[in-house]
Amino acid sequence: MGDRYCLGSTGDGGVGRSPGFPGVFGGFGQSGASGTDGRSTFSGNSPGNGGIGGDGGNGAGLGGAIFVNSGGNLALIDSRFNNNFATANGGGAQGGGGAIFVLGGATAAGTGLSFNSNIAFNGDRDVSGTLGNLTIPLATIAPRQTLQESRPGSGQFVVNLSNSFPVDIEVNYSVGGTATPGQDHALFGGTIAIPAGQTSAILDLGVLDDTIYDPDETVIVTLNSGRNYRTTF
Length: 233
Description:
The chain is built from no helices and 21 strands. It has 2 domains: 1-134, no CATH class; 139-224, Sandwich (Immunoglobulin-like), CATH 2.60.40.2030. It is an all-beta fold.
């Protein structure tokens, strides 16, 4: 299945089937796998209905909303699983993982998840297998270059994350101090993106030489709260 990051989009999953193979899983009825805001809803009508079964075999519906195959890597962020079910096709076949089924050899982790009224025919109603926790990283900032007005363009800060994350993180920041944005430097408040899998990004101050003698001035960059990171321990 490969890597799958479930981000954005709300909708109903489809009915997964695996025809012709006795006793195999019914695929995964999947929704909410596109978008950018990191939120997904898997809501009802998302049954892994089980393989049709060949040669008299009975198919098992595994994972009402998502089935994570061996070797797959799933990351879920702020996702909701409501009224999904995993059933079976034929007597004695297991229907497991009402919302998510994680096969051995796969990895799955999430943060901000909620489960409500999911049903499995013969297995864990929410999750079957191992679903780990995604660690929300701590964002910090530190100077990287000495700031000198006599060296226009100088001055950098580095924004660090305590751990990498599977999606891009946009860190919000504000700029204060006694130096004047647009006159002493070119940095205004905004956001800086740290790409998925990375732990740092460089914020350029862009010192400006206004040819006016100034006493020592300060630039204070403060990280503000946002999604998928924290600013306090």
